Amino acid sequence: MAAKTRLSVIRRVVATGLVPVLPLADVGTALQLARACRDGGAQVVEFTNRGDGAVTVFGEVLAACREELGELAVGVGSVADAPTAAAYANLGADFVVGPTLDADTARLCHSRKLAYMPGCGSASEIAEAEALGCEIVKIF
What we know:
7 strands, globular
């Protein structure tokens, strides 16, 4: 199943009002957690970009989610820079979440029609994120 569109991801987040954040420990555990979130009503899940081999594990988790939980939008969080976002985008991530606003990541995601949700701590950062095409931000 193909990646979800940016608009589709945004609509799913707005509809459920939350984005469950899950660890990328291993494929079995990640799939079990994603399944539980879906069964609880979540339409999106975010896996964290943490630990050695996170990109590789995410690729495996994404493939398993696409096969079993095709309706679920699957993204990645804790992405701090554009090269890391590109690695996940190349695997087919549905969205990217950042701990901070990074203009290069915003531009990369925008050019690929990929939802990017950066962390913002001020009104100025929120305005900058909006100017860069971000529809949703995390408020710190």
